[in-house]
């Protein structure tokens, strides 16, 4: 069975770059071409270093030139609203070309899908899948991540805060007999840390790693930003956590559908370390991306790189990395890759499109969906009225109790009355796209 954006008429229009002035329009018109330009510039500037590891530098250099040409062509096609091309060759690592090509054929009521006329989710995902396809189609540069240098630079910029988070979490693990109220307080704080760690998104800044995070005020900022959490179901989440503790599950699983690497990834690790060390869960599953995605999304290689880096840095980072390694070795942490997370499909069709993944998620006692892209997929990329209840927004997607943690960077939202929207519009005209406001939304 194949899902397409027009298989059944959705209750509301899709977010699309067709609407001039919308964030989707600005993304396709400005941000996405800038990202491609930065990748092209990096490949041109660093070509000698990139091909050095190949056993045939001259042939690898030719591969690189071809890729740069293809990236330039993709940018031009985007800017001139050309048709999205089918993927001619499948990638063994993904085996998703058939699904992609069916989406491209069936979208827009069978009209040819174009950059500015198709659902935003489709075209934005397409760009990153096309970039991967170009490298995978080469002889000598398969598996190359053109965003890894940006992610590593962002980690260095955020390092002081990352050290603070590691130190804080290490301290929480020193004591083993917290009361229920103490467990509650620390859990809530870590959830808020995970939320606000989501502000650092390289696809939003078009790959700009120079946006400095003020290390001396991060924990203070979290306190001050409490009023910026527009929907906060944290108390409902803790009631559910108490339910988990009071019931004899064979294996208590937390699944985190991850978003950004760097600071946000470390924040997710902090929550996981706390949950395992205090037996709130028996296992944490980290779902990462199979391929480089949306510039800063976490891949398995990003996680490996970060742990290796921390193991060779300050004492606090070393101790934190050791805990993570120990939980990985004991299988209390599992790092998982699934192709569904790099398809342009919303989550309410997962049970039909990928029943194995859906069944796997059903084993969790809690699933945390991180960030804006996951939120867009939870809501099917639709222009929902802001007051829509979260459960309606999910369109029946309910493999397990789920928690959405998201700083708002796209014009899609639910559970917020129209009066609050008007109030926010007066306070900050960019509140839906600048990441200064957050959501903690829970559904059982």
TrEMBL record:
Residue ranges of every copy of the Damage-control phosphatase ARMT1-like metal-binding domain listed in the record: 27-418
Pfam families on file: ARMT1-like_dom
UniProt entry tagged with the keyword Membrane: no
The protein's Enzyme Commission number: 2.1.1.-, 3.1.3.-
Catalytic reaction(s) noted: beta-D-fructose 1-phosphate + H2O = D-fructose + phosphate; L-glutamyl-[protein] + S-adenosyl-L-methionine = [protein]-L-glutamate 5-O-methyl ester + S-adenosyl-L-homocysteine; beta-D-fructose 6-phosphate = dihydroxyacetone + D-glyceraldehyde 3-phosphate
InterPro entries: ARMT-1-like_metal-bd_sf, ARMT1, ARMT1-like_metal-bd
A GO term, aspect molecular function: phosphatase activity
BP term (GO), one: DNA damage response
Cofactor requirement: Mn(2+); Ni(2+)
Keywords annotated in UniProt: Hydrolase, Manganese, Metal-binding, Methyltransferase, Nickel, Transferase
Top-level taxonomic group: Eukaryota
Function of the molecule: Metal-dependent phosphatase that shows phosphatase activity against several substrates, including fructose-1-phosphate and fructose-6-phosphate. Its preference for fructose-1-phosphate, a strong glycating agent that causes DNA damage rather than a canonical yeast metabolite, suggests a damage-control function in hexose phosphate metabolism. Has also been shown to have O-methyltransferase activity that methylates glutamate residues of target proteins to form gamma-glutamyl methyl ester residues. Possibly methylates PCNA, suggesting it is involved in the DNA damage response.
UniProt remark on domains: Subfamily III proteins have a conserved RTxK motif about 40-50 residues from the C-terminus; the threonine may be replaced by serine or cysteine.
Family label: Belongs to the damage-control phosphatase family. Sugar phosphate phosphatase III subfamily.
Protein name: Sugar phosphate phosphatase
Source organism (scientific name): Daphnia pulex
